[in-house]
Known about the structure:
Blueprint: E1 2-7, E2 25-30, E3 35-41, H1 48-56, E4 61-64, H2 69-77, E5 81-84, H3 90-98, E6 103-104
Parallel strand pairs: 1-4, 4-5
Antiparallel strand pairs: 1-2, 2-3, 5-6
Helix pairs in contact: 1-2
Amino acid sequence: xxxxxxCENMEIDGLVPALFKDSEYLMIIDADKNEIFKIYxxxxxxxxxxxxxxxxxxxxxxxxxxxxxxxxxxxxxAGVTRYNGAxxxxxxxxxxxxxxxxxxxxxxxxxxxxxxxxHTGACECGEEEE
Length: 130
């Protein structure tokens, strides 16, 4: 199984950036061997290449910061689980993901919410706002 992690540098103690598009590097971790398998540097402003590399390596999950619509949808439609590790060291975020301690990224920046809508304004879905 492979896990992708965005980071500010090529070190395991580097930070996961707050925004996916601000990530300078993408690490692919082989979870079965518990080692870094591959590292990619930034190739485009929105990091769509990073999203494609996640799919190319058949990653089960990605640890990153908040995502823009295009990479978010690409990963969602491919079934990649997205975890919010923003501001954490790569190693810490990876460990917390394995312990089910990271929040899930349910929507893209400015998106409609986890179920196609948000509870702001005049929502009439019948569900309680938390």
